TrEMBL record:
<feature type="region of interest" description="Disordered">
    <location>
        <begin position="106"/>
        <end position="136"/>
    </location>
</feature>
<feature type="compositionally biased region" description="Basic and acidic residues">
    <location>
        <begin position="110"/>
        <end position="121"/>
    </location>
</feature>
<feature type="domain" description="YCII-related">
    <location>
        <begin position="1"/>
        <end position="114"/>
    </location>
</feature>
<comment type="similarity">
    <text>Belongs to the YciI family.</text>
</comment>
<protein>
    <recommendedName>
        <fullName>YCII-related domain-containing protein</fullName>
    </recommendedName>
</protein>
<dbReference type="InterPro" id="IPR011008">
    <property type="entry name" value="Dimeric_a/b-barrel"/>
</dbReference>
<dbReference type="Pfam" id="PF03795">
    <property type="entry name" value="YCII"/>
</dbReference>
<dbReference type="InterPro" id="IPR005545">
    <property type="entry name" value="YCII"/>
</dbReference>
Length: 136
């Protein structure tokens, strides 16, 4: 089963790190990804740029509304994600507990929801029979 491990931490804690501490943390993350990959658990993932680079888009009344910043003000910011393969939630939690930034923040683990296949073209889709108040 696939799980997303969303990594959150307070960017202010990371910004306060020395260059060497930041380098060491990144090297620890790279080594962790290599281990997960060798074990067949790492399917993908990426680190994200700081929250000040975020832009949010909402669709209101058919029009896009674009605003600077993340979707919500929070104490911890989304820093990246890992896409994991695990037997079950317990294994996914065990794997997520080894993600180095978990020491500074939170790793949220969520099962991936697979989307159904795309519906056939509208002309090929079966029609629904009319109900009480519909015009056939």
């Amino acid at each position: 089963m696939k799980y997303a491990a969303l990594v959150y931490y307070q960017e202010s804690l990371i910004a306060a790190m020395t260059d060497q501490e930041w380098h060491d943390l990144n090297q620890e993350c790279v080594a962790g990804v290599e281990r997960l990959t060798e074990q067949g658990h790492f399917l993908g993932g990426q680190a994200l740029q700081p929250v000040e680079s975020a832009v949010s888009v909402r669709l209101r009344d058919g029009e896009p509304l674009v605003t600077d910043g993340p979707f919500a003000e929070t104490k911890e910011q989304l820093a990246g994600f890992y896409l994991l393969e695990a037997r079950d939630l317990n294994e996914a939690l065990r794997l997520a507990g080894r993600i180095p930034p978990a020491r500074f923040g939170t790793v949220e683990v969520r099962p991936i929801r697979e989307l159904p296949p795309r519906d056939p073209a509208p002309e090929a889709a079966p029609s629904r029979p009319p109900t009480g108040g519909e015009i056939p």
